[in-house]
Write a structure and sequence with these properties.
90 residues; mainly beta; 3-stranded antiparallel sheet
């Protein structure tokens, strides 16, 4: 799985050799695959992106401020499509 994201004004692309990644801030129990620290509007385990049967999904993990896809707050898991814009935190 390859993810391109913007954080603190810089674009970055990371490749992951796994079916699921966690986005959040470091905590004693789970190290996020994509850390958005020190943004305190990002929960420690904020969201996950995962692949099932060739489709990619995003799921908010009960974060305090939510996960937006194309400007819409997600209440349940959602399939991602090419070009979708995800916003987490600031």
């Amino acid at each position: 799985m390859r993810i391109t994201y913007n954080y603190q004004g810089a674009e970055q692309t990371d490749a992951f050799d796994k079916e699921e990644i966690i986005i959040g801030r470091p905590n004693p129990f789970i190290k996020p695959d994509i850390s958005l620290a020190p943004d305190v509007t990002v929960s420690r385990t904020h969201a996950r992106i995962y692949e099932r049967d060739g489709r990619f999904w995003i799921e908010d993990l009960a974060s305090k401020y939510g996960t937006l896809v194309n400007g819409v707050k997600q209440e349940v898991k959602r399939q991602l499509n090419p070009g979708d814009q995800i916003r987490i935190g600031e």
